[in-house]
């Protein structure tokens, strides 16, 4: 099954194309912006690794995680400071950036900085948010809600297209399976590619245990590798991963993040699988 590529403009002028017959895309970085120093470290190392492996790379980090389990949980630096950090990383490191938008008021300032606007899974049905994102003309990365079937994501795609959106990517990140647990239905990958949208597999949020640690979410990072392998074998256009130098000390989603020093080995494995299923 082929899908039309989505073009992502980059600060360096070399557009990234995501879709059939294109290099694998990796969207990766810490869950939330913790500090500019850490963000630059992760972006720099990931940019170097992906450049060497021939993988298209976009740096991700949230300026605000508005859906944390607890009121006391770290959310990020906020809109103004967060976008300032992302803007400097984008311009000075020449790497495209993506972050979550949570309400219509964030769309305009975010679109001035971000190369891709991301709609969080819990907000995938919020019509006003989708319409405002589509109207910017920016690529939109729409995450499938944990409560939404893959075939129902066509409604979200139609909202974006109806508002003028032409650059749409869909993200699989697992579905609710009882309490505090997610399961990945690999059928969702070809189903959503059937809407003629590139599909991204969120390998780290898919192993999250929502609210599973009481006041925060837990995770089972040991399953990142097998699920990533399975998703690439099933046929996807890119991967989304939360990457941190020391996940156990991460301020957000550490239990389901992959170590920065482990990412290259995994990507090398995934490239071999991707080559096998696309040639």
TrEMBL record:
Protein keywords: Cytoplasm, Lipopolysaccharide biosynthesis, Transferase
Gene Ontology terms: cellular component: cytoplasm
Superkingdom of origin organism: Bacteria
Keyword hit for Ligase: no
GO biological process, one term: keto-3-deoxy-D-manno-octulosonic acid biosynthetic process
UniProt xrefs under Pfam families: DAHP_synth_1
Gene label: kdsA
Ranges for domain DAHP synthetase I/KDSA: 14-274
Annotated catalysed reactions: D-arabinose 5-phosphate + phosphoenolpyruvate + H2O = 3-deoxy-alpha-D-manno-2-octulosonate-8-phosphate + phosphate
Gene3D superfamilies in the cross-refs: Aldolase class I
Protein name: 2-dehydro-3-deoxyphosphooctonate aldolase
Enzyme class, first EC level, given as a word: transferase
Gene Ontology molecular function, alphabetical: 3-deoxy-8-phosphooctulonate synthase activity
Family statement: Belongs to the KdsA family.
Major place of residence: cytoplasm
Pathway terms, separated by semicolons: Carbohydrate biosynthesis; 3-deoxy-D-manno-octulosonate biosynthesis; 3-deoxy-D-manno-octulosonate from D-ribulose 5-phosphate: step 2/3; Bacterial outer membrane biogenesis; lipopolysaccharide biosynthesis
InterPro entries assigned: Aldolase_TIM, DAHP1/KDSA, KDO8P_synthase
Transferase recorded as keyword: yes
Compartments, record wording: Cytoplasm
EC number(s) reported in the record: 2.5.1.55
HAMAP family per the UniProt record, alphabetical: KDO8P_synth (MF_00056)
